[in-house]
Design a protein that fits this description.
- With 399 residues, the chain is mainly beta.
- The protein is built from four helices and 28 strands.
- Helix content is 8%, strand content 38%.
- A four-stranded antiparallel β-sheet has the order 1-28-27-26, with no helix packed on it. A four-stranded antiparallel β-sheet has the order 2-3-4-5, with no helix packed on it.
- 38% of the residues are buried.
- It is found in: Cytoplasm.
């Protein structure tokens, strides 16, 4: 039956008898009764029918609630390119490349955004302890247990030059301008530990092994040596738990950390702030300390429950990250929860722990913030590099 065929009290003209809706839309059941009762008073039968059909239709379900920012988990990118434990991580200045060193003799370069491996640098015959990349990302320098420090061409992996020593090369770093590099050597057999400054020639054909400066007299292995502001000083730290600042031209000792307020055990790592005004050290005495670069004044202390192997300072936020864990030789005697292998974040000013990132199955040996402050990487005894992009929770931390 069509709408126009329904009985009305008023007469319908012949020319107006045309269907308003298809026959499949005629009202049925109670809807027909309501339609007949209200038809004479409602001016538009089509609108009335649509109104009735809306009443019969169940309300749509509410849209799912949007997940809060905290619901998005920070998922790491696992980078497997080394066969032995990681020893060091370094980003280039632009933050798009990540360089990793390990005990498997082969430094590796990765895309810092997605963790894709770009290539390796083959030539060392021993564990590679540290590396640094030039400001323009053209050259890489590495220090190795094979008693050499090597210069590489970043883009091709070609070895440019090899500095030879009488002991393992431990720490390496380019100076501002990339015309100098500081290299430390270990105490080995009858050889004492040294800090050596090498001139880096623009043309590799002019490169020599001659040292511009050699510093001796330090007891115990030197684990880290870095340049101070404007290349005027060199800062060293190592097994004797003492931080020293040296004149980079004369080799004269300028300052030494206080033994009472300083570390009580081996200093395993050292990292500078982005503006070089302060630096942080990590120690096996289960603490990390923040120091003034010029005066060597102790600023802050961060206490943790396990030996600290690696530290770094965020370039954009008031946070520092610490990593470590129990001694590697005891890893197989317990699980990762007891070993405390997570990276711990502390508020740089308030010294309070604000979070942690788990995942490694062994001690963390290397940590590095990306220069843009939006991600960080960790390297562990398990041979993995884990790349973490921070979620919104990190940027919205309130204490």
């Amino acid at each position: 039956m069509c709408l126009w065929a329904l009985k009305r009290e008023s007469t319908v003209h012949e020319e107006s008898r045309r269907p308003l809706l298809p026959t499949t839309t005629r009202p049925v059941g109670l809807a027909r009764v309501f339609f007949r009762r209200l038809h004479s008073t409602h001016p538009d039968p089509t609108a009335l029918l649509l109104l009735l059909r809306r009443r019969r239709r169940p309300p749509p379900p509410p849209p799912p609630a949007a997940a809060p920012p905290s619901a998005a988990k920070m998922r790491p990118i696992l980078m497997k390119g080394h066969e032995r434990p990681l020893t060091f991580l370094r980003y280039n200045r632009d933050g798009d490349l990540l360089f990793s060193c390990a005990k498997d003799h082969t430094p590796t370069v990765w895309f810092a955004d997605n963790g894709d491996r770009l290539g390796t640098y083959r030539g060392h015959n021993g564990a590679v302890w540290s590396c640094d990349v030039s400001r323009d990302s053209a050259r890489l320098i590495t220090g190795s247990a094979d008693q050499t420090a090597k210069l590489w061409e970043v883009s091709t992996g070609r070895e440019l030059f090899s500095f030879r020593f009488d002991a393992p090369a431990r720490s390496v770093e380019f100076a501002i301008g990339d015309a100098l590099a500081v290299i430390t050597t270990d105490n080995f057999m009858d050889h004492v530990p040294t800090v050596q400054v090498k001139r880096i020639a623009e043309d590799v054909e002019d490169q020599t092994e001659e040292s511009a400066l050699v510093i001796t007299g330090i007891k115990g292995r030197i684990n880290r040596a870095v340049w101070g502001p404007l290349n005027r000083t060199i800062i060293t730290a190592g097994e004797d738990a003492t931080i020293r600042i040296w004149d980079s031209e004369t080799g004269k000792l300028l300052k030494e950390s206080d033994k009472e307020s300083g570390h009580q055990k081996t200093i395993s790592s050292l990292s500078k702030s982005a503006d070089w005004s302060h630096f942080i050290t990590g120690s096996l005495d289960k603490s990390a300390k923040l120091w003034d670069t010029r005066t060597l004044t102790l600023i802050k202390t961060y206490v943790t429950e396990r030996p600290v192997n690696a530290v770094d300072i965020s370039p954009t936020h008031h946070t520092v990250v610490l990593g470590g864990g129990q001694d590697a030789m005891n890893v197989t005697m317990t699980d990762r929860r007891a070993g405390k292998f997570e990276a711990k974040f502390y508020h740089k000013i308030l010294q309070e722990e604000i979070g942690g990132v788990k995942g490694h199955f062994g001690p963390i040996n290397a940590l590095a913030f990306n220069p843009d402050g939006r991600s960080f990487s960790s390297g562990g005894e398990d041979g993995y590099v884990r790349l973490h992009h921070f979620d919104n929770d990190y940027f919205n931390i309130k204490i």
